[in-house]
Amino acid sequence: MFILKRQDVEITSVQHPKSGQSVPVLKYQGQTFRLISVFNANQAEEARSFWRDLTDNRGKACVLLEEPDRYSVWGKVRLEQISGDSGGDEVSVAASTAFTQASLLLLQAVYFDVEDLLGTRQASAFEKEISKVFQQWNFPQAIAPNEVEDLLQQDPLEGGKVPPWQEHHLNTLLQELYRIGKDYFGNSNFAGRAVDSLEDLPDGDRTQFINWMNQSPLGKLWTTA
């Protein structure tokens, strides 16, 4: 739909009526958009590919915001749909519990792989690096050291804490997790091993999660690695 610069738009936030979380909102020429996914500054190609897929192939009304330190994709929505929680949004933002659980399984699989193959010192460095990601992108319930440790250690399928993340959090986590994993292992073989951990999910949840990843550049990173 549009490729915009930061000076072209106004970015504010509204409070979600059920979760109480702040929902980022972008306003442009009287239209309202909310955040779908965030990409780092070196992911311009992935960001544009994701934006084009949503607009050209899936018929979504989206904008691509180009900033010096990141790219972000926003989906059109009526403001009253957010405040009224009508469920009629053009692009879903709240991540399902199953998708968050799946993302945590991938995170833990890479973390344990680092620990098993590279040692506890590298695992500690990995924990610090993923903590920086959580802090940089303001992940709910993932900032304090004990929160990060719980996310890395507690089984999300067996009563472990499942944070109230949104889809843009999952997109950011999985993009950054792949980047970090490739830095540690020097290749993408770790991704295939991590995806095996999704076998612990119910079949329906696993299929839906993989289909969701395949609708974005994440599919090229994880499911075809």
Task: Please name the defining characteristics of this protein.
single chain, 225 residues, alpha+beta, six-stranded mixed β-sheet, 9 helices, 6 strands
What topology does this entry show?
Elements (H helix, E strand, L loop, with lengths): L1 E4 L4 E6 L6 E7 L2 E10 L3 H14 L4 E6 L2 E7 L2 H6 L12 H22 L1 H17 L8 H9 L13 H19 L3 H7 L7 H12 L3 H4 L4
Parallel strand pairs: 1-5
Antiparallel strand pairs: 2-3, 3-4, 4-6, 5-6
Helix pairs in contact: 3-4, 3-6, 3-7, 4-6
Short description:
The protein is of the alpha+beta class and 225 residues long.
What does this structure look like?
Helix content is 49%, strand content 18%. It is α+β, with helices and mostly antiparallel strands and 225 residues long. It has a 6-stranded mixed beta sheet with strand order 1-5-6-4-3-2. A hairpin with a 2-residue loop joins strand 3 and strand 4. Helix 3 (97-118) runs antiparallel to helix 4 (120-136), helix 3 packs across helix 7 and helix 4 (120-136) packs antiparallel against helix 6. It is globular and about 50 Å long. It starts with a strand and ends with a helix. The model is unreliable at 84-93 (pLDDT under 50).
